[in-house]
C-alpha cells in the first residue's frame, strides 16, 4: 500500500512537471463571424491592422509605430490540439497576425503536454525543421521531473505568458484578461512569400519580438520566431499559470 501511494505521488509530480493532465480534446461547437471565432465558451477576436511601411521597391516609407496597431484576444488558451487546429485552419491561420498570435498558445500547450505541443508547432510552422527548432529549445526551458523552475533562472515555464499584454516579471507574468497578443509592423521589408511583424511584450528589455511569417496557400505559417522563446526577465514571485 505504501509503495502504491509513493508511486501515485511520483506520477502526480511527473505530470505537474511535464504539464500533463490539462489537455481536453472534446469537440466543441464553433463558428466564425467576421473578425471573431467561438469555440465552445472560448472566443478569439482579431482587431486592428498592420500598416505597410514599404513601397513597391521595398524602401521604407514610414517608421515603425510607437505602440501596437493589431491585437488578437482570447478568453482561454486552447484546450488541446483539436481546438488549436480548428482555430488555425478556420480563422487565425488565415492572416499573418493571427498565425503569429498562436505562438504563445502553442508554447502553453507544449508546457502542458509535450506531444500535444509538438503537433501544434508542426501545424503552425508548416515544416518539421521550423517546428523542431522551437521544440528543441522549449524542451530545455520547460521543467521536467526533478527540475525546480523556481530556483533555476534558465527554466522559464512562464514564457508563453510573457508574450501576452500586461505580463511582466514584476507581476509574476500575470497577463491582462482577456488574453491579448499585441502586434506592430516590422522594420524588415517583406521578401517574396515572407513577411515580418513584431509582437509587443514587456517580458524582455527590448519589447519588440520579431516574427517571420510565410504565406502557405490560403494560410500563413510561422517560419522563425527565436525572439519569442529567448530568455526573458527572471520572474518575481510565483507564476499562477494560464487558463
Descriptive overview:
This protein is of the alpha+beta class. It has one domain. 30% of the residues lie in helices and 20% in strands. The chain is built from 6 helices and 8 strands, in the order αββββαααααββββ. The chain has an 8-stranded antiparallel beta sheet with strand order 1-2-3-4-5-6-7-8. Strand 5 and strand 6 form a beta hairpin. It is globular. The N terminus is likely disordered.
Helix content: 25-40%
Radius of gyration: 18 Å
Oligomerization status of the protein chains: single chain
Largest β-sheet summary: 8 strands, antiparallel
- Tell me the fraction of residues in β-strands, as a range: 15-25%
How many independent structural domains? 1
Shape: globular
Give the spatial strand order of the biggest sheet: 1-2-3-4-5-6-7-8
Please state the average pLDDT score: 90
Helix-strand string: HEEEEHHHHHEEEE
Q: Give the count of helical stretches.
A: 6
Number of strands: 8
- Can you tell me the residue ranges where pLDDT is under 50 for at least 5 consecutive residues? 1-21
Distance between the termini: 35 Å
Helix- and strand-based class? alpha+beta
